[in-house]
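To the wet lab folks,

You asked to see what we're planning to order before we commit. Fair enough. Below is the target structure as tokens, and below that is the sequence we designed to fit it. If anything looks off to you, flag it before the synthesis order goes out.
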């Protein structure tokens, strides 16, 4: 009885992992070069000051759905973790090793074929603030 229970548990885990791999194939996202705009907002910014924006292009594929953040990723070695897909929404955690400690971010974007919208929140070590980035992306063509 116990071995049957263990076998059923293993089959359920394999099925769940296979479902995550297939989800990337099913997401409504056109692979290729994307123009991504990140608009940063920080607590304590003067009233009326517009958010700071950065626009860049990246090649995104169905097996690499998480856009790279132009901020913390330049400050250290960053790796996406805990990537989850629910429908057309991708959620992730990003951990970057910087000289000042670990920078952690969590993000979420929803693809709509040739566009996406979402947000990412970042915590900087040694500071009691969270930086929020509004993310917008649009497909601009095939990857180089």
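Sequence we intend to order:
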């Amino acid at each position: 009885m116990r071995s049957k229970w263990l076998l059923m548990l293993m089959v359920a885990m394999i099925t769940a992992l296979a479902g995550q791999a297939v989800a990337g194939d099913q997401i409504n996202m056109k692979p290729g070069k994307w123009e991504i705009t990140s608009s940063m907002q920080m607590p304590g910014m003067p009233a009326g000051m517009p958010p700071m924006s950065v626009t860049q292009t990246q090649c995104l594929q169905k097996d690499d759905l998480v856009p790279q953040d132009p901020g913390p990723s330049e400050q250290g070695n960053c790796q996406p973790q805990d990537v989850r897909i629910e429908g057309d929404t991708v959620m992730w955690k990003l951990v970057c090793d910087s000289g000042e400690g670990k920078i952690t971010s969590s993000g979420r974007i929803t693809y709509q074929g040739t566009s996406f919208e979402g947000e990412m929140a970042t915590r900087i070590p040694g500071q009691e603030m969270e930086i929020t980035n509004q993310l917008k992306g649009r497909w601009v063509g095939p990857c180089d």
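Structural context that might help your review: The beta strands are 32-41, 52-60, 77-86, 89-98, 101-111, 115-123, 130-141. The radius of gyration is 18 Å.

Thanks,
Computational group
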